[in-house]
Inverse folding.
C-alpha cells in the first residue's frame, strides 16, 4: 500500500501565521518593558457629543 500524502499547508501560510504570532509576542514584551511608549496612543475613549 502507498503511504497517504499528508495535507501540508502552503509555506506562505505558515510564514504569515508565525509572523502574526511573533508580532503579538513582541507587542506584549514591549508593553511589559516599555509601557511609556504606548501611553500616548489613542485608546478610542468615548467622548460626549455636544448638543446643538
Amino acid at each position: 500500500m502507498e503511504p497517504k500524502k499528508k495535507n501540508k499547508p502552503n509555506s506562505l501560510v505558515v510564514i504569515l501565521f508565525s509572523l502574526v504570532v511573533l508580532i503579538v509576542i513582541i507587542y506584549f514584551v514591549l508593553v511589559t518593558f516599555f509601557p511609556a511608549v504606548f501611553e500616548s496612543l489613542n485608546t478610542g475613549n468615548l467622548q460626549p457629543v455636544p448638543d446643538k
